[in-house]
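Long-time lurker, first post. I've been practising inverse folding by hand and with some scripts of my own, and I keep getting stuck on stretches where the C-alpha cells seem ambiguous. Below is the full C-alpha cell string for one chain I'm working on. Before anyone asks, I'm not after the true native sequence, just a reasonable design that respects the backbone. If someone could post their per-position residues I'd love to compare against what I wrote down in my notebook.
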C-alpha cells in the first residue's frame, strides 16, 4: 500500500489486515504483524487508546476523527490527526476498519508561529489604538477650546460694537454743542475734542486726541 500517510487496516474481527510503509516507519509495525490481533500491538494504545474509537466507528458506521494527538518519535514531538473509518460492504456488512494517521506537525508549527506573530502584533495594535483614542480626546479638547475662543470672540465683537456705538453717540453730542468741549482723562490726555474746539484752537480732533493737554 503506497500512501502519503500511515495506515493500518483491520478485519471485522479485529485482526491486522494491511500495514503500509509509513506505518512501519512511524510506529514500528510491519507486514509480520498481519494476521495478529490488533489489541496485542502497542499501536492499539499508543499514542492513544484506539480500541474504544474503533468500536465507536463500527457501531455508528461513520468516520471518527481525533485531532491533536501527540506522539514522540525519537527526540521529535509529532502532532497527529487520527481517522478511523468503517469499511462497509454490500448490505451494510462491516468488513473492517481503516486507521489513518495524518502528520500535522508542520501545519501545527506554522499555526503556532502565526499565533505568536499575531500576539506580537497585538501590542503595537493596542498602542496604536490607545494613541488614536488619545488623539480623539485631544481633538475633542481642541474643539472645546475653539468653541470657547469663538464665544469669547463673539462677545468681544459685541462689546466693540457697543463701544463704537457709545463713541459715535458721544461724538454726536459733542458735535452738537456750540461751546468748545475738551474731555481729558485722569492723566490729562485728550480723549475728546469737538468741532468748536477745533475752530477755537485750530487743531483737528485726530491731531488732539491722545495728546497730553
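-- Answer (accepted) --
I ran through it position by position. Result:
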Amino acid at each position: 500500500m503506497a500512501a502519503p500517510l500511515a495506515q493500518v487496516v483491520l478485519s471485522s474481527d479485529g485482526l491486522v489486515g494491511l500495514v503500509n510503509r509509513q506505518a512501519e516507519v512511524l510506529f514500528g509495525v510491519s507486514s509480520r504483524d498481519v494476521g495478529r490481533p490488533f489489541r496485542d500491538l502497542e499501536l492499539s494504545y499508543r499514542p492513544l487508546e484506539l480500541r474504544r474509537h474503533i468500536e465507536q466507528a463500527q457501531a455508528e458506521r461513520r468516520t471518527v476523527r481525533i485531532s491533536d494527538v501527540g506522539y514522540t518519535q525519537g527526540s521529535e514531538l509529532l502532532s497527529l490527526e487520527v481517522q478511523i473509518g468503517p469499511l462497509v460492504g454490500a448490505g451494510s456488512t462491516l468488513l473492517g476498519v481503516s486507521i489513518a494517521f495524518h502528520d500535522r506537525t508542520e501545519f501545527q508549527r506554522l499555526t503556532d508561529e502565526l499565533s505568536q506573530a499575531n500576539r506580537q502584533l497585538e501590542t503595537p495594535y493596542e498602542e496604536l489604538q490607545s494613541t488614536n483614542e488619545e488623539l480623539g480626546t485631544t481633538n475633542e479638547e481642541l474643539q472645546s477650546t475653539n468653541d470657547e475662543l469663538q464665544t469669547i470672540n463673539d462677545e468681544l465683537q459685541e462689546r466693540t460694537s457697543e463701544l463704537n456705538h457709545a463713541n459715535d453717540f458721544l461724538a454726536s453730542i459733542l458735535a452738537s454743542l456750540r461751546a468748545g468741549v475738551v474731555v481729558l482723562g485722569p492723566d490729562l490726555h485728550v480723549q475728546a475734542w469737538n468741532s468748536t474746539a477745533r475752530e477755537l484752537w485750530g487743531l483737528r480732533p485726530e491731531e488732539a486726541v491722545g495728546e497730553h493737554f
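A couple of notes from the structure itself: Helices lie at 21-27, 51-60, 105-176, 195-201, 205-208. The beta strands are 6-11, 16-19, 64-73, 76-88, 94-103, 182-184, 190-193. Happy to go over any region you disagree with.
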